[in-house]
Amino acid sequence: MTRDEWRQRIEDARRRAKEVSRERREHPELYKPVPEDPDLVATERLLRDDSLQRGDIVTTKKGMFVYQGRPDQPRRDQDFVPVNPKSVR
Asked: Which residues of the chain have pLDDT under 70?
């Protein structure tokens, strides 16, 4: 790459940055972050937790659940069985 080509790339990048900056100022509603659903985030975290073992109990806003999944299979929502509070006593 020649020095002139390098300078042209820098100028193109600056021009694109200014265009994006102007677009964000003119239409800020297009760039608002989408709020994350805390329940969805917690569920995804549970489904990715490699430390869970069969019989582990997890607590969520929806109650307590026993993990009944198998280590040789991907986790699913159905692997978490509700704990019956009356049987725990």
From this structure: 85-89
Q: Evaluate whether 46 touches 80 at the Cβ level (below 8 Å).
A: yes
Q: Is 59 helix (H, G, I), strand (E, B) or coil?
A: strand
CA distances from 16 to 27, 67, 86 (A): 16, 50, 63
**What's the confidence (pLDDT) of residue 87?**
53
The tokens for 17 are 């940055």
Neighbouring-strand partners of residue 65 = 58, 82
What is the C-alpha to C-alpha distance for residues 40 and 61, in angstroms, rounded to an integer? Answer: 11
The answer to whether 56 and 67 are in contact (CB under 8 A) is: yes
Q: How far apart are the first and last CA of the chain?
A: 75
